[in-house]
């Protein structure tokens, strides 16, 4: 089942039929057994006609988030560990990434408030004070307030490799700025955990030409989702639930950096494709001293 957040409420797509749900988004998704609740919707509701459904799907889709915080896990795939060890060699921080990959405690960091999150079909930003920028496609969990995973979406954990590589203590600046996170296009809800064989694919286009393309599967993750959730919820409460990006498994080569106008397409089996265009924030100014 796919649950979309749209301007008029929520759109549920189940067994090739679509239904509008009127509930408040936070209330709708923050429940135990979300999949059981959604499965009951067709019993009382009338499906949308094909024309109305198509009209909704051609309109803007909002990121599937209400008031939740977005958190992220790091260095959960070998690819991320190796890329970060390489970029931080000069700063002397390479061993941090090596150690955290094997440690019992995972790397978890705050990524975004809901208001800074972008969505499918929208822009994400690169920093003007960063020379090396990449998107990070991440399977993202929606966890309810009780700590139970209720759904999955695609997360774009935009990152400045030059700022993080300069000094690991700059991580919040490399990761948290306006529109540095995107979620979408929908929440995939299932009674069983998402298939570990699900493929994650990243395509980056510049002037309509593919400049980077790669894919792998969720199964290559080092940690279990439960392990990540347990550490995140150990001393934090999330009254309306929380989104957790589970780490990147794809990193473009060191010679690659994003440019304004690039189009980033992230696809995860069962969830769909999220497309973002890269831009600079028109409201910020380059700092003179940099
Ligand atoms: O250690 C820094 C961030 C790691 C990260 O974002 C990732 O592995 O996806
Ligand atoms: Mg990441």
Provide mean pLDDT, rounded: 96
Total number of helical segments?
A: 8
Q: Can you summarize the main beta sheet? A: 11 strands, mixed
- Fraction of residues in helix: 10-25%
Count the beta strands: 18
Which ranges are low-confidence, i.e. pLDDT below 50, for 5 or more consecutive residues? none
Class by helix and strand content?
Answer: alpha+beta
In this entry the ligands are: 2,5-dioxopentanoic acid, magnesium ion
Strand content: 35-45%
Based on Cα principal axes, name the global outline. Answer: globular
Rg (C-alpha, Å): 19 Å
**SSE order, one letter for each helix or strand:** EEEHHHEEHHEEEEEEEHHEEEHEEE
Question: Termini separation (Å)?
Answer: 48 Å
Structure description:
With 290 residues, this protein is α+β, with helices and mostly antiparallel strands. The chain has eight helices and 18 strands. It has helices at 25-29, 34-44, 50-58, 78-87, 94-102, 161-166, 171-175, 225-233; strands at residues 2-6, 9-14, 17-21, 61-62, 69-74, 107-112, 117-119, 122-126, 133-134, 137-143, 149-157, 159-160, 181-188, 199-206, 209-217, 242-245, 263-268, 272-280. Strands 1, 2, 3, 4, 5, 6, 7, 10, 11, 13 and 16 form an eleven-stranded mixed β-sheet that branches. Strands 8-18-17-14-15 form a five-stranded mixed β-sheet, with no helix packed on it. A two-stranded antiparallel sheet has the order 9-12. Helix 4 (78-87) runs antiparallel to helix 5 (94-102). The longest helix is centred in the N-terminal third of the chain and has 11 residues, at 34-44. It is globular and about 60 Å long. It starts with a strand and ends in a 10-residue tail after the last strand. The relative contact order is 0.20. The mean pLDDT is 96. The structure holds 2,5-dioxopentanoic acid and magnesium ion (MG). 2,5-dioxopentanoic acid binds next to strand 5 and helix 4.
């Amino acid at each position: 089942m796919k649950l979309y957040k749209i301007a008029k409420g929520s759109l549920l797509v189940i067994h090739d039929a679509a239904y509008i749900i009127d509930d408040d988004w936070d209330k709708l998704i923050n429940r135990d057994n979300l999949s059981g609740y959604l499965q009951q919707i067709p019993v009382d509701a009338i499906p949308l006609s094909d024309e109305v459904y198509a009209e909704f799907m051609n309109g803007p889709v909002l990121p599937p988030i209400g008031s939740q915080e977005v958190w992220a896990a790091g260095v959960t795939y070998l690819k991320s560990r190796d890329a970060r060890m390489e970029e931080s060699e000069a700063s002397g921080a390479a061993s941090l990434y090596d150690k955290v990959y094997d440690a019992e405690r995972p790397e978890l960091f705050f990524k975004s408030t809901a208001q800074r999150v972008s969505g499918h079909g929208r822009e994400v930003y690169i920093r003007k004070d960063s020379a090396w920028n990449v998107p990070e496609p991440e399977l993202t969990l929606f966890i309810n307030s009780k700590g139970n995973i209720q759904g999955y979406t695609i997360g774009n954990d935009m990152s400045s490799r030059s700022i993080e590589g300069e000094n690991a203590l700059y991580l919040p600046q490399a990761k948290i700025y306006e529109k540095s996170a995107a979620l979408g296009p929908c929440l995939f809800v299932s009674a069983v955990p998402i298939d570990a064989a699900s493929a994650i694919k990243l395509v980056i286009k510049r002037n309509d030409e593919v400049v980077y393309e790669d894919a792998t599967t969720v199964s290559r993750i080092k940690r279990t989702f439960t392990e990540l959730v347990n550490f995140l919820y150990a001393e934090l409460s999330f009254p309306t639930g929380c989104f957790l990006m589970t780490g990147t498994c794809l990193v473009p080569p060191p010679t690659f950096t994003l440019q304004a106008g690039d189009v980033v397409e992230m696809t995860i089996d069962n969830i769909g494709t999220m497309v973002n265009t890269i831009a600079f924030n028109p409201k910020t100014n380059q700092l003179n001293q940099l």
